[in-house]
Amino acid sequence: MSEKETAGEHPETESVESAANTPAQEPPEEVSVPEEPAETAPPEEPAPPEPPKEKPAKPPQEAPSPPPAAVVPPQIIRERVVEVREEKKGFGRLKIALILLALLAAIVVVGVLTLNVQISAPDPGDSYPYTTTYDVHFPLAQPVTIGNTKMIALTAEDEMIIQVDQNPGQKIVVGEERKISERKATITVLGIQAMQTNFQIYLKYLGMDGIKARFYLTVKRSDDIPQFLIDRLLPPEIDARPA
User: Considering Cα of 176, then 179, then 181, then 185, what sign does the dihedral take?
Assistant: First the structure.
């Protein structure tokens, strides 16, 4: 048998072989189509608020009638009048008392400012029942005036010499007491004599205290006078303190 016949007899076989020799074709690529955004519905407008409902007007209330005035008994009125008068009297008394106290305070202040102590010769024959003693320190060789009496303390070993009013000095030893002077004090206030008393001054030598001479100074008086008036007789430089 010839080749042509053979080929003509098996046409299916050739088509299969040609198909096997043909390369396989790739499938076409898929093209993505962009999706269109969905249309959004416009927001709904809020409903307008409802107008407030008007409250029904209340009917006007009638003003309450005032209560009838209470009738005050005449006796209570009289008692109240008496109380008011007493209160006014009490206030008047208090006002007068305050004025009197203010005047008294003013008089005391003026009296203290015008207080004066005058020293003179004593009246003879008086006794001296009132006594006040002070612990004092005299600076050496310096004049000290007590009750218008000028004194100077001078030391000489164990002795002390007290010179009074430029008179010759008096020697005084430790433990010895001497009368230094005798005077009269007249106290005046606003130029008016208030009181007076005779007084004597005594010194008792206690020895040296550092650079100062220590004494007990005793003031004897014929009449009792306030302590602050006696203190006015003593100068600050002797540092007088009640013994």
Answer: positive
